[in-house]
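in:
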């Protein structure tokens, strides 16, 4: 499948209030391009689910803390969201957003054989933020995140997908495009700039 990257459509857009990002195989390389490119004054909270082994301590937050100009931490249960902060889901816990927009951790059954699962975060955040949410689906080897991206779009939010032609593993972004044809396909090197534009509207 050939997908041509497109520029987000101009015109009025919902006020962005939060960003959710999902990635799997190739996640570290992709996030190493995206997250350090976010500006120091980025105004939105960013929640990230990466498929990580359940039996090992995650080093994702530690790895990115020194690379980024925004605050980076591992999410904690019942933690309120703060602007300009990146929250990584801890190993073996689903990361959700409660209706009061606090983070929540769950040990419910894996989804797509994964815990944390991208769909769980995307769908709960879509319920909490509605049109104020922006979902980003990156490289990965499963369909996790596709259903959640569609839920974000159905709630009026923004849906962004890494260009599959440049993804280390294109399965996940292709599944996202198939489930959510209205998603905007963005080259990874332009993703932070697109998010920065959305942040300026918040």
């Amino acid at each position: 499948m050939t997908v041509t990257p497109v520029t987000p459509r101009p015109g009025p857009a919902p006020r962005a209030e939060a960003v959710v990002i999902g990635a799997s195989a190739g996640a570290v390389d992709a996030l190493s391009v995206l997250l350090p490119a976010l500006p120091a004054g980025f105004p939105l909270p960013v929640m990230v689910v990466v498929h990580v082994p359940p039996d090992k301590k995650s080093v994702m937050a530690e790895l990115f803390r020194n690379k980024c100009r925004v605050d980076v931490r591992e999410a904690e249960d019942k933690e309120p969201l703060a602007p300009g902060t990146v929250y990584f889901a801890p190993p073996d816990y689903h990361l959700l957003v409660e209706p009061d927009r606090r983070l929540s951790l769950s040990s419910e059954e894996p989804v797509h054989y994964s815990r944390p699962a991208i769909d769980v975060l995307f769908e709960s955040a879509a319920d909490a933020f509605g049109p104020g949410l922006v979902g980003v689906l990156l490289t990965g080897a499963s369909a996790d995140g596709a259903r959640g991206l569609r839920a974000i779009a159905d709630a009026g939010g923004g849906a962004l997908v890494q260009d599959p032609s440049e993804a280390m593993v294109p399965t996940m972004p292709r599944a996202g495009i198939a489930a959510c044809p209205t998603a905007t396909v963005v080259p990874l090197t332009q993703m932070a700039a697109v998010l920065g534009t959305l942040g300026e509207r918040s």
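note: DSSP finds six helices and nine strands in the chain.
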